[in-house]
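Our consortium's second objective concerns turning raw sequence data into structural hypotheses that experimental partners can test. To show how far this objective has progressed, the report includes one record in full. It was chosen at random from the queue rather than selected for favorable results. The single chain below, 121 residues long, was entered without modification.
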Amino acid sequence: MDRNLAIRVILLPRDTNAHGTIFGGTILSHIDLAGAVEARRHTKHKVVTVAMDGVEFHQPVFVGDVVSFYTSLLKTGRTSIRVRVEVEAQRNHDPSQLVTVTSADVVYVAVDREGQKTSLV
């Protein structure tokens, strides 16, 4: 399965939760954006998120980590696209350390100008 780098960011103190690690909602937001980048490669239409399945937080993300969001196409339907997003962090304190931190499958649906489902092609 081909993986594409969709987004790479350095996460900042403003992205932390009460425990001092990166807030899961921040990671989920980036997952949604990364998946949309992949989905847009497969249709000329706008896409909207309809589901996020199997979200797993494997490791925490820390301030200063370089976080990469890799995508791969899992399936296309008539109006929908399922994308796998895998998130890896290059640790700020040890750049040679690369860990998988989160993964999720995201489903997008193509919509027309009125926001109604439409065929991908």
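The partners drew two points from this record. The chain has one helix and five strands. The mean pLDDT is 97. Both points have been shared with the crystallography group to help prioritize constructs.
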